[in-house]
Structure formats: structure tokens, C-alpha cells
Amino acid sequence: MKILGIIPARFASTRFPGKPLVEIDGKSMIRRVVEQATSCNALFGVIVATDDERIFNHVQSFGYQVVMTSPDHPSGTDRCLEAYQKSGLHADAIINIQGDEPFVDPSQIDLLANLISKPEVEIATLAKRISDNASLFNPNKVKVIFSPNGRAIYFSRHAIPYQKNSPQNEWHLHHAYYKHIGLYAYQVSALTSICSLETSPLERAESLEQLRWIESGMSIYVAETDIETPAVDTPEDLKHILDNLL
Predict the structure, then answer these.
(1) How many CA atoms lie within 13 A of 24 on its CB side?
(2) Bridge partners (DSSP) listed for residue 146
(3) Cβ of 200: how many Cβ atoms within 10 Å?
(4) By C-alpha distance, which of 46, 32, 36, 7 is closest to 238?
């Protein structure tokens, strides 16, 4: 199976404009993401999908492939599809690699590639077990529940399932809760389908696009990982990473 890595990279982030170009120990964040992704043997190629000439020119300057896409996409998923369609490349599946995770682990990409290679898997993603209450009850940490065969049942910003007979501060001690790790792999046909779907009621309620896919009847399979690398959503996140590098 031919699997292509695509890295969506917008300049106009609400919380941190221009973050793909910020420097982390001598390299831009987007360059670090590309280098991590290209070290993954499961991918036959990696391209950056951007809506900004500054990012476009920067990625070209260090010799990697980049595609200019519309600034009007509602999500990185839609940006991935346009970039693929414009790339001139042929792939069976695409892995959407977050452009704000400069230390993304190639082994996680391999894990996704292995899962999306299975014929029954249309969409694949990752989850990590939660071991603390702070993450469990943080609405910015998306939770996922899945069946024994790995098929996602639901994603939520709330802790799920509710435990009727246990105090909340002990929930994580009595049940295995999982945090969603935002890497996705899609069969190309599935990516085309999900980008044509209208916003769904559950998606509007939780502001999670993967709920639209589930509501449409598509399957998302989940692989468990014990790795979580830091994302840069805000200038404070960047400061935390830089402080830990010193």
C-alpha cells in the first residue's frame, strides 16, 4: 500500500499566528515536523499543505514538497484532500500529520500506517490511556471510547463513560479512559467522502469533526499508543518546550 504523509500548516492561527515558522533550537517548527515525518519508512512521500506564501517559500527553501491550498478550508482534513489532489501523486491512503507537533514520533506514524493497511479500516487514529484526573476532566483533552476490536464508538470532550457508583476523583482508577491523539490516516476514498459531508448535530455540540464521520456511518479504528509528544497551540506551549530544551 502506498501511503502519503500530508502536513497541514496554516499561518493565521487564532491563538498563535505564524507558529509554523517559529524557531525551535535552530530550526523552524514546520521543518522539524517534516524531518520527523520523512524519517518514517511507512511513507513514500511527505508534502506540506499551506495557505500562506511565507510558509510555502520556507518549505521550498529546504527542499521539501509543498502545495498551496485555499485559505477557506474549515479543517486540516479538507486541506489534506486539496493538497493531495493538486500534488500529482498517487496514494492508497493518506496520513494527516499535525503541523504543530515538532517532535512527532515516527513510530506513531508507523502504527497508523499498519492500521490503515488493513482492508476493513477506512479511517484510523490513535489514543493514549489517561492516568490523571486533570486530563480526564479537561474539555480540551478529547476522550475516545472504542470496542474490543478497536472500532471507535464515540469521541467527547467530557469524561466517558460516566461511573454511577464511583466518586469522580477515582474514575480513572476503576476504568480505562483514553485520550485521543490527533493523528489520522484515511483511505483516499474515505477522505474524499468525509470532505463532502455536511456538519452534523453531534459535531456542532462537541466541535469535533470526527463525530460527523461516525454519524454518517463511517468506521474509525483506534490503535493504542503510550507516546504523546507536545503540541504548540500557544506561545506558552512554545516557551515550555524551549525551557525543557535548555
Answers:
(1) 26
(2) 152
(3) 16
(4) 32
pTM of the full structure: 0.94
Per residue in 182-193, pLDDT (tens digit) is 999 999 999 999
- How would you label 111-138 residue by residue, b for 16+ Cβ within 10 Å and e otherwise? bbbebbbeeebbbbbbbbebeebebbbe
Considering the segment(s) 3-241 as one domain, its CATH architecture is Alpha-Beta Complex (3.90)
CA 86 vs CA 7, 68, 243: distances in Å: 14, 9, 39
Contact between 125 and 185 (Cβ < 8 Å): yes
Q: How confident is the model at residue 166 (pLDDT cuts 50, 70, 90)?
A: very high
Instruction: Tell me the residue type at 94.
Output: I
Q: What is the Cα Rg of the chain in Å?
A: 18
Buried b (16+ CB within 10 A) or exposed e, 148-173: eebebebbbbebbeeeeeeeeeebbe
> What are the extents of the domains in the chain?
3-241
